[in-house]
Design a protein that fits this description.
Blueprint (H helix, E strand, L loop, with lengths): L2 H15 L10 H15 L3 E2 L1 H8 L3 H14 L2 E5 L7 E5 L1 H25 L1 H27 L1
Antiparallel strand pairs: 1-3, 2-3
Helix pairs in contact: 1-5, 1-6, 2-4, 2-5, 3-4, 5-6
Organism: Candidatus Monoglobus merdigallinarum
Protein name: MarR family transcriptional regulator
GO molecular function, one term: DNA-binding transcription factor activity
Length: about 150
């Protein structure tokens, strides 16, 4: 049983289900920052503030304040788009990548332990059910956006 691969698959679906709990165990400010770092990382290292706000469920004001703090810490860089000067692009920096990777490793390790404690059959069932719940949420959100 490859619990590491199973844990990584689980975390992908768990993030969809519990966006705001991605940084659970961290203080409230850090939770939001970790969520934003994780989202930017999942987008290939670059995203715009409006997209970050809508996809993470954070208000645009909270997102802007958070990005300012994260830029001050050196975790992200905000620059105007070369193709559209009105648009701001947020890029994760190398220190931001390292923090995000460390968090992913910690979460993966804890998830491996959790899945291992369930045993093979229950671990597979749990991840299958989590995936189904995540897919249902995505489908429901898409239907709600269409009207």
């Amino acid at each position: 049983m490859d619990y590491l691969s199973l844990a990584e698959e689980y975390l992908k679906h768990e993030l969809t289900l519990r966006r705001r709990e991605y940084g659970r165990g961290l203080n409230r400010l850090a939770q939001g920052e970790m969520l934003v770092l994780a989202y930017i990382s999942l987008c290939g290292g670059e995203a715009c503030p409006g997209e970050i706000s809508s996809k993470t469920g954070l208000s645009s004001a909270r997102t802007a304040a958070m990005l300012g703090g994260m830029e001050h810490k050196g975790w992200v860089c905000r620059e105007r788009s070369p193709s559209d000067g009105r648009r701001i692009e947020v890029t994760i920096t190398e220190p931001g990548r390292r923090i995000c990777e460390r968090l992913r490793e910690e979460l993966t390790e804890k998830t491996v332990q959790m899945l291992f404690s369930l045993g093979e059959d229950d671990a597979l069932s749990y991840v299958r059910i989590t995936k189904k719940l995540a897919e249902n949420r995505i489908n429901n959100n898409a239907q709600n956006e269409r009207g």
